[in-house]
Amino acid sequence: MSALTREQMAWRAAQDLPDGSYVNLGVGIPTLIPRHIPVGREVIIHSENGVLGLGPKPQAGEEDPDLIDAGRGLATLVVGGVYMHHSDSFIMVRGGHLDVSLMGAFEVSEQGDLANWTTEDPGFPPAVGGAMDLAIGARQIRIVMEHTSKSGEPRIRRRCTLPLTAARVVRRIYTNLAVIDVTPQGLVVRELVPDLDLAALQARTEAPLSLAPDCRSLSAP
Amino acid sequence: MINKRVASLDDALAGVRDGSTVLVAGFGDVGIANTLIEALQDRGVRDLTVVANNTGNGNWGLGRLVISGQVRKLICSFPRSGEYAEFVKAYNAGRIELEVVPQGTISERARCGAAGLGGFFSPVSAGTKLGEGKETREIDGRLHVFEQPIKGDLALIKAHQADRWGNLTYRKSARNFNPVFAMAAELTVAEVTQFVELGALDPEAVVTPGIFVDRVFVPGGAT
What we know:
The complex is a heterodimer. Chain A is of the alpha/beta class. Chain A is 14% helix and 29% strand. Chain A has one domain (6-217): Glutaconate Coenzyme A-transferase, CATH 3.40.1080. Chain A is built from 4 helices and 13 strands. In chain A, the strands form 2 sheets. Chain A has a 10-stranded mixed sheet. Chain A has a 3-stranded mixed sheet with strand order 7-6-9, with no helix packed on it. The longest helix of chain A has 10 residues, at 6-15. The two termini of chain A are 16 Å apart. The relative contact order of chain A is 0.17. By secondary structure, chain B is of the alpha/beta class. Chain B is built from 6 helices and 11 strands. In chain B, helix 4 links the parallel strand 3 (71-76) and strand 4 (97-100).
C-alpha cells in the first residue's frame, strides 16, 4: 500500500494553500508544510506567541533567543513579518482573520468534531494551549494526521471518544491514505492512494465514507 | 521627579503579600522575568495564585516558584513544556490546584481586567469540558461561554528597554503576554535588559506606556 510519508502529507496539505493566505500551523506534521508551499505563492504563517510572518529555523549563527515559534523552537521572521502581543495575536485567531488553521488530531468525527487537546491520561495534567482558540476562530480548520492510531484504531469516528476541542469545525482531513472532506452529506473521499479501494479505506475508518464522483489518485513527490 | 527605577530586588518586591494573585508574563523561556520570579520565591510569600502560560522549567525561574509549595493555584494554558516533571509530581500529589484556560482566553481575561470590564462571552471552549459549568449564551447562532476578568495584585513583566517613567519596549516574540499583563495588576514590576534616558525611546516604538508600570528593575545594572 502506497501510504504517504509525513513529508508527503505535508506536501499535499501545502498544495491547497492559496497565494496571499494567512495560515496557522500546529505542532507535528503541519510544521513540515512551509517548505512544500509551491514557489511563487506568498503564504503568511502566523505563530500564536506573537509572530505574523514566521520564517524557517535559523541557520547556525543566526539564532536569537527572543525569537521562537509556538512550539518553543528557535525561529526567524520573513521580510515584512511583524510582532504583536498575545491579545492581538488571539484577536487574529478568534476573530476569523486567519484563512486556514492546519492542526494534528487524535480524532475527528463525521460531523467535523475535533479532539486534539487531551488523551485524559490519568496522573498527567491536561494542557490546551491555543488549540481551542484556533479551532473555533480560523475560517477553515484542516487536519493532518495518520489515518489510524499507532495501535491501528480508527481516528475518523462516528463520534469522538476523547474530549472535544470544538464541535463541527473540521472541513478537510489529510491522512496518509486519503483526502477527505467533511460535508453536510457526510464524509466524502476526494483523493485516495493508489492500490487502496473505498472498501479498504472504510475498513480503517469508523464513520461512513462516500467516494466523490471525481475522486482522484493521491500521490506526492 | 518621577523615577520608577528601583535599586534592589527588595525594593522591586516591597509590599508583596501572602495570598496574592501574580500575573507572570512569558511564553516558554522567552520574555519572562526570571530574576523577579526567583526573588519572589526567595522572599517566602505563600498561598499565591499564579497566572502564566506555562509552568516553567526545572528548578529555576518560574519552574522553581511553581514547585516551591508557595503556589496554591496555577491558572495556565499549557502546563507541560520543557522540564515539567517536578510540576507533575506536585500536581499528582495534590499540592497545587490547576485551572487550565485556553491561551487566548487567558490574555483576553487579563485584558478585560485591565480595561475595567466585567468579562466577556467567548465561543472558545463552549460545548467542551473546559466550558462546563460556565454561564452560556447563544450569540449569532453560536454558543458562547462567559469568561470572568483576571486582575493581579502583582504583575511580573520582562521588557527590553525602559526609561525612568516606566515606558517599555520589547524584543521580537519576547513581547507575548507582557503588554497585556502589565496593564492588569495593582502593582506592575518590570525587569528590563536596558535602562535608557527619558527621551531616548521613540514614542512610536513604546508598547507599554509608563502609566501601567510601577517599578523598573535592571538585573546587574548600576543605578
